[in-house]
Amino acid sequence: MPTIVAITPTYFRLEQKADITRLCQTFRLVENLRWLLVEDSFNKTALVQRVLNNCKVPYTHLNAPTPQNIKNAPGKRKFPRGGVQRNAALAWIRKHVDPKETKGTVYFADDDNTYDVRIFEEMRYTKVVSVWPVGLVNAGKFESPMVKDGKVVGWIFVGDTRRRFPVDMAGFAINVQLLFSHPKAEFTSSSRANVLESSILEGLNVTLADMEPRAKNCTEKTNIDGAAEGSLLTNFRQNFDLSLKTIKRAFLQNLTFRAKKKLSPRLSNGALVV
Ligand SMILES: *[C@@H]1O[C@H](CO)[C@@H](O)[C@H](O)[C@H]1NC(C)=O
């Protein structure tokens, strides 16, 4: 059975202990998972060590401080939070995992999200990149690959339209072999936030044709991105059926939702194939 390698960047704030405890308890329900937890700190902290000691999930505890010049970049953040830590985890995998011995799937599991445990079995046999819908992303109700005849043909999303792959960190997983066939691929710094996911996928040289839709051809929403406002949860009751017939309705609801929030609608090139 392929291993799931879950990479989680974490940093100190009041919710940290609660967040990583919740994540630990989710991971406990998943077979054959290794947790790479990377602290944004100069030292590994006792707080995180204590949670890991009690967690009963196989883990590797790492730390990688975000350099001050990145942290304090004025105005726009040069490198969105977590990038340095995820790269440290990728370097660890390339150093310690033998790609000939290990079959595995790499997943970037941030600590402020809520994960439906079923998604781990969906991603476990990822050949190249697997993708699925995620709820409450970027102040939209959900983001999702658009699937037609079992193939990803576009994306439903809100946010930066310049991303080649407008997926949330919680919405994709990659086969570990890709990290070895593309040894330089990592999260790259950019003046724009929210492009990190796209940057790693571009580095890994994947195409739309490589995307394997999961969660019943992306008709099931399996994760909730906790970085979205908690109050939005009340808007997340409806389980959209993303058949082509209903995509339009769902998409318009996303737009209406944004309009109510006074956010400007942005459409992707691919997202209006309805
Ligand atoms: C996804 O769609 C394809 C094409 O319509 C179909 O063959 C396949 O069985 C579907 N997969 C699932 C899991 O529903």
From TrEMBL:
* Stated family: Belongs to the glycosyltransferase 43 family.
Membrane-crossing ranges are none
Q: Report which reactions are catalysed by this protein.
A: 3-O-(beta-D-galactosyl-(1->3)-beta-D-galactosyl-(1->4)-beta-D-xylosyl)-L-seryl-[protein] + UDP-alpha-D-glucuronate = 3-O-(beta-D-GlcA-(1->3)-beta-D-Gal-(1->3)-beta-D-Gal-(1->4)-beta-D-Xyl)-L-seryl-[protein] + UDP + H(+)
Looking at the UniProt record, the site noted as Interaction with galactose moiety of substrate glycoprotein sits at E143
Which Gene3D superfamilies does the UniProt record give?
Spore Coat Polysaccharide Biosynthesis Protein SpsA, Chain A
Keyword Manganese in the entry? The reply is: yes
- What is this protein's record name? Galactosylgalactosylxylosylprotein 3-beta-glucuronosyltransferase
